[in-house]
Design a protein that fits this description.
The chain is mainly α and about 525 residues long. Helix 2 packs parallel to helix 11 and helix 6 runs parallel beside helix 10.
Length: about 525
Amino acid sequence: MKENMAKQTKMNEFLAPMAKSLMSKFKDAITSVLPIVLIFLILGVTPITEFSMKEMITFVLSALFLIFGIGLFNLGADMAMTPMGEMVGAGLTKSRKLSVLLIVCFVMGVLITVAEPDLSVLASQVPVNNILLIAVVGVGVALFLVLSIIKIVFKKDLSQFLVFFYMVLFALAAVLIQTGKSSFLPLAFDSGGVTTGPITVPFIMALGVGVALTIGGKNANENSFGLIALCSVGPVLAVLILSLFTKGTLSYTLPDYSIDANLGANFWKTLGSTVGEVALALGLIIAFFLILQFTVLKLPMRKLTQIFVGIVYTFVGMIIFLTAVKVGFVPIGFKLGKQMAEYSNAAVVIFAFVIGMIVVLAEPAVHILNKQVEDITEGAISKRSMLIALSLGVGLSIGLSVIRIIFDFSILYYLIPGYIISLGLTLVVPKIYTAIAFDSGGVASGPLTSSFILPFAIGVCVSLHGEAKVLESAFGIVAMVAMTPLITIQILGFRAIAARKVKERAVMSRLLGADDEQIIDFM
């Protein structure tokens, strides 16, 4: 009897905080998704758009499932993905075998990237060999994850890596333009954004934290960021190199974006494929973690139980999230873009800016990053300031992308000056802001960007220029979403420096202007 009561007490101690956390996650998810739904419903009753009752009901129901999925996923990430990454990073670092750490990180980089659902969504929308594209991107991420760990271990400056590799990227882009393969550029830069999705972000970021804090040093917190930044460069570089050896140019065929095609029988097909994608992603990570558990980590059963309960939450949450996005948000995003472009160019640019500010709030990985930033900096960089900077950055990026579609010019006219500004800011802001900014760029371009914003951009492009220009004009919007937070977050850091200096000057001015007679001399 006493044993049963003790077990029940332990179970209650485990379940009560979890239930409280789950309710908090649902509350955050409602706050994130509700503005999108309200804007859609308002537009739905205006002359700007024309949606059937079936389409509106489908979107609202998808939004409800989205809220549920985000809540479950965020709780699961807190319970499983983040602790797993930290423990793997710390455990392998304590073994003091750098070669083992780097080999494990390379294998893990390939596995989690190949299994990332966001990459599969992008690969399915472009006319290239999907398996080859995913494999090349996976190797790119793995190589740069290894480079990131080397940076942490030897405490190298992130800015130097970023400046060098972005110079290489733009040099390769120039070569592609000269060889008449400019249609590959938007796809290449988009691939860097989609690889850092909601499953890989918490694991990779926590891995960096685990390695950096185990190594220690006065800049350990600053050194823990930057993995997402470098892992976002690898895929772009890999796809650009692949493009150099690819014959001919890309062509594009418009998918079926009608709501009817995503209901009924196709709903179960979408659900089944999503279950497979998420099971593969988590299955590979779990298998890898179990190997490390039996060989290196050897965690207690209580900790393992918490992690596996968290994995269940993550699994269910991601299935609900991605299915809702594919069923309701993809077709509505396309139709919304098409109809708004037909109505007014000015209206579609304004809407793109507003929806960009709001959509980033619904990205699961954004909330994980913000929480980790607040924890690591001990509140010096708050979740609120991060969200505001990210929202402004993503809103600006989508608004500028729509302007590019309207006037039909190369994405390099944005990317080159944008990266010059962001790399220039790395020279004047604190290093931790640089690392957080470049991590934020990869995190902001999550599932909603590839499954709602990209179809929206395709709809705008089809309305204005037809299918022929989609690959060059509509694609690249993910790259823009990944770029602008680099500027806004670093401006946040620059503002923090300026505010501190103004405060220091004010204090010094008061000290120098003090009345000498009021100073008491005890000597």
